[in-house]
Specification:
Layout: H1 15-26, H2 30-47, H3 54-59, E1 63-68, H4 73-87, E2 92-96, E3 110-116, H5 128-134, E4 146-152, H6 162-173, E5 177-178, E6 183-185, H7 190-206, E7 233-242, E8 252-258, E9 271-274, H8 280-289, E10 297-300, E11 303-306, H9 307-313, H10 322-332, H11 335-340, H12 346-353, H13 358-364, H14 373-379, E12 386-389, E13 400-406, E14 409-412, E15 415-418, H15 420-428, E16 434-440, E17 455-458, H16 465-477, E18 483-489, H17 492-495, H18 499-508, E19 513-518, H19 528-534, H20 536-544, E20 548-553, H21 558-574, H22 578-590, E21 594-598
Parallel strand pairs: 1-2, 1-3, 3-4, 4-5, 4-6, 17-18, 17-20, 18-19, 20-21
Antiparallel strand pairs: 7-8, 7-16, 8-13, 9-12, 9-16, 10-11, 14-15
Helix pairs in contact: 4-7, 8-13, 19-21, 20-21, 21-22
Length: 599
């Protein structure tokens, strides 16, 4: 925000007025600034203060930048586009699809859309309503609109950038004209996204004839803390404790990190992003298989450095992608790989990728002519940050942040595999060591503004992490709302994460109720969704009394199963059809009373 701060030299305001405006704007959210900019523009138009005839103002088209974001990447790109639009003198607003009023769509003339794809080709949760509206019968014709779409995704998933493709095709079907062609970005999206923003804003500028500077505005968020994936904070490890008991098949770690000197604070629901490091032995095996010198100097993402260090610190050396298979198939002249890339074989390709690492492909299809380091690095993606729900309240633990990490270890295709970030934290994050981290705000997973609002928390396994933060926050702040937790894991004796804390909060009355599901302790497997159904009548009463519902954990199975259980509960105990129950839950989502943090 400091780069856009007002003073007497860059505005017609006095120093005192500018200071008041800066203090106000710093406390507003993006949605609030959007509303305020529109309100001021309206006052200006009514009073005739724009310094231009009203006819000219009516011809003025504001650029709307819509984003659908699950992890914050699409939001960040949209905010960058908004900031650059304002810098060019273009009137712009940046709007979360979750907050967008669909009745405004028919009047839009200039639209940029930045969206991620979640799960298996689905829109991010905040974009669901807008996606459904746009593809429904009530969507207006947009023959006077011009648009551009930037799609973010992960090519290791089958339905790569599907939501962006959906939006792009639908806007065209509704009659809108493209400003520039859609770009589908993989996880290394920064450069491509920056180029798309420049081209899109160039095209927007061609359709904005006159821009009265008094009307130009943007709702971009402040720049925030200076730490990010390119400049993480080196957080000292304070504690690394195993949460599972003897005999557990899991290894879940409670890790406490120091934020002293960083200036970073956070809210319950926020995400800690970690820049991990690959295992030394995995990098060494890859180098040996390709007969490459680990000491050879290469140009990496982090500058010139030895090849072995670059593979360890800068590249995804395990994750297989279709792009790697395509490049390697050409080098190895491997007919089997070419067959997987044939049209209509996407499903077979994704099945092949599942459970395999890069070293598997190299061993299965050895190269006869060798491979140089530059070509290898050009085939691999940049090492991506891993995200963890924060398991602590900053109010309760000033200067610290806690995370709950399940170390991933498994066997696949005859080889032992290790999660890149989880085992990095589990095995190398010893007290006194430092790990590179930064914060991601998660505004769609927030405690109710009213502290007396009851909440229901559903978090099996490590999905319980943010609810530890929720309860710490509510305890320290003295919130009066009732709290109900559903937790599940395989075994009571070995897998009851944070058991003593839940028991203390139950005894003190902070935790009103707790229902547990230990799936392997009985003759039949029981999961959190089963406990939800068993408590359906009471749970529905909580919903009717205004409770907020939170779900955290596995997106592939748990979250859909929980959603199905909630639908059944609302239908049965609310006397509704399945369709009506589905709409009931959608309304809860719109009202921010049903929030999910799933992965």
């Amino acid at each position: 925000m400091s780069s856009m701060a007002l003073d007497a030299t860059n505005s017609p305001l006095s120093d005192e007025q500018a200071a008041e405006v800066n203090r106000l704007v710093a406390r507003l959210s993006g949605a609030q600034r959007t509303w305020l900019s529109g309100y001021l523009a309206g006052l200006q138009a009514i009073a005739g203060e724009a310094g231009a005839p009203r006819e000219a103002a009516a011809e003025q088209h504001t650029l709307t930048i819509l984003y659908g974001s699950e992890t914050g990447n699409a939001e960040r790109v949209a905010q960058q586009a908004g900031e650059q639009a304002v810098a060019r003198g273009l009137p712009a607003r940046v709007v979360d699809m979750a907050d967008y009023k669909t009745r405004e769509l028919r009047d839009e003339k200039l639209l940029l859309v930045v969206t991620a794809t979640h799960g298996e080709g689905d829109p991010p949760d905040p974009a669901l309503d807008f996606h459904e509206f746009l593809h429904g019968r009530k969507a207006p014709k947009l023959t006077d609109a011009r648009f551009a779409v930037l799609a973010l995704g992960d090519s290791s998933y089958e339905h790569f950038c599907q939501t962006g493709r959906d939006f792009d095709a639908r806007f065209e079907a509704l009659g809108a004209q493209r400003l520039v062609e859609r770009i589908d970005c993989d996880v290394d999206f920064d450069e491509a996204a920056g180029q798309w923003i420049q081209r899109a804003l160039d095209a927007v500028g061609e359709h904005v004839v006159e821009v009265p500077t008094a009307v130009a505005s943007a709702s971009a968020e402040p720049a925030g803390v200076s730490y990010d994936r390119h400049n993480p904070f080196q957080a000292e490890v304070l504690e690394n404790q195993i949460l599972n008991g003897r005999g557990s098949e899991k290894a879940t770690h409670h890790i406490e990190l120091s934020l002293e000197g960083s200036g970073i604070d956070y809210q319950p629901g926020d995400i800690l992003c970690l820049m991990p490091r690959n295992r030394e032995e995995v990098a060494a095996e890859l180098l040996e298989a390709l007969s490459l010198d680990p000491q050879q100097t290469v140009a990496s993402h982090s500058g010139e450095r030895p090849l072995g260090e670059a593979l360890r610190d800068d590249y995804e050396i395990t994750t297989l992608t279709p792009a790697f298979i395509e490049a390697y198939a050409e080098l190895a002249e491997a007919e089997a790989l070419h067959a997987l890339l044939a049209e209509g074989k996407r499903g077979d390709l994704m099945a092949y990728l599942h459970g395999r690492h890069i070293i598997d492909v190299i061993n299965e299809h050895p190269l006869s002519g060798g491979l140089d380091a530059e070509t290898l690095l050009g085939m691999m993606r940049r090492l991506q940050p891993r995200e963890y729900s924060i398991a602590s309240s900053y109010l309760a633990n000033p200067g610290e942040v806690h995370v709950t990490v399940a170390a991933v270890r498994y066997e696949s295709h005859g080889r032992q595999r290790h999660g890149v970030a989880s085992t990095f934290l589990a095995e190398q994050a010893e007290p006194g060591e430092t790990v590179p981290v930064y914060l991601r705000r998660n505004k769609h997973f927030r405690l109710p503004e009213n502290p007396d609002t009851p909440i229901v928390m559903i978090g099996p396994g490590t999905g319980v992490a943010p609810f530890r933060a929720f309860l710490e926050e509510r305890e320290v702040s003295g919130a009066g709302g009732a709290n109900w937790l559903f937790f599940g894991n395989p075994h009571f004796r070995s897998d009851f994460l944070y058991q003593t804390e839940w028991q203390r909060w139950l005894k003190d009355g902070l935790l009103t109720r707790m229902d547990v599901a230990f799936s392997r302790d009985g003759p039949e497997k029981v999961y959190v969704q089963d406990r939800l159904r068993e408590r359906g009548a009471e749970l529905y009463r909580w919903l009717e009394d205004g409770a907020h519902v939170y779900v955290c954990g596995d997106a592939e199975r748990m979250a859909p199963d929980v959603h199905a259980a909630l639908t059944e509960i609302v239908a049965e105990h609310g006397g509704r059809s399945v369709e009506q129950a589905g709409e009931y839950l959608k309304q809860l989502q719109r009202d921010k009373r049903y929030q999910r943090d799933v992965y």
